[in-house]
Amino acid sequence: MKNNSFSPKVLVALSGGVDSSVCVHLLQQQGYEVEAAVIEFSPAHQGAVAAAQTVAGQLGIPLHIITCHEEFRRNVIEPFCLEYKAGRTPNPCIVCNPTTKFRFICEKARDLGCQYVATGHYAGIEHREGVHLLRKSACPGRDQSYMLYRLTQEQLSMLLLPLEGMEKAEVRAIAAQAGLASANSPDSQEICFIPDDDYPAYIERHFGKSKQGEFIAPDGTVCGKHKGLLHYTVGQRKHLGIALGYPVFIQSIDPVANRIFLARAGEEYALGVTLSQCVTLPHPAWQQEVAGEAIEAAVKIRSRAAEAPATVTLLPHGKATVTFHQPQRAPAPGQSCVFYRDGYVLGGGFIESQIL
Fold first, then answer.
1. What does the alpha-carbon distance between residue 29 and residue 42 come to, in Å, rounded to a whole number?
2. Three-state SS for 253?
3. CB-based burial, 10-25: b 16+ in 10 Å, e otherwise
4. Burial class (CB in 10 A: 0-12, 13-18, 19+), 129
5. Is the confidence at residue 188, as pLDDT, over 90?
6. What pTM value is reported for the model?
């Protein structure tokens, strides 16, 4: 996009990291009028605010600070902690993006008269006659479309993703060439509000100790005590403190009985999963095949998992069943299962249970 008498205005979600910094730099080169906003989600994010201020100063753009401690606590922190205490494995970024991060960025953009918002995510966007589609990045190793699958059509309609198709090394090289302070900054951690990454200690500090309970061996007998459900996840094999004479893993967690059920190694593969709170993007695949309420898709059951072919059957009330063509290892309740077709995101939902 070349400079002309009218420059589209974009608000960049600037964290102070290398990805969002290069996002600003690229948009400036493309002729956009760029402003930035940094979100202070919690006191743990004050360092991100300072880093964003440094980069905004280097790039010569206005920076708006958005503070939303209460909303972040209500929308992200509390559900995250309660999910772990219930023996599930949540992904807070997936919940934060539509309910908090993009909500506040889009609201601020409208207040400032910005037509667009932009982030440093590695994914693609296509706008087709009022329909807004989310694509995987052309670089599979950096793809973050899984994290964005719950964004609304309104949020996607405003979104620009300048890093689509780029490698991380290329992004860092651009930052270094531009002399940005973020050029060598480390990649952001997944749980941004827990700086030391000790989430069990964080949850117990804020929501109370997790009660001890029983490990149940594959033969149905009690074989030991666990130290609280939030310390474990489905599929876990290490640090169980159990010696049965053969390797085991966590097959399921029962929060009502406060029991963790073990199975022999090799039995951790599921035939499918049930989902809740499903969302769908308006991809043509649904219109072509939804009459039978089932489509063939590739699915991911965790952010770094390989895609697996599956049959997705939509059910009433936001539920679905996913049947894998080949059994998949240890899908964890609380994680997301995201559907893809030809590189496009079709939708997804939260894993409720395994189909064994």
1. 32
2. strand
3. bbbbbbbbbbbbbbbb
4. exposed
5. no
6. 0.92
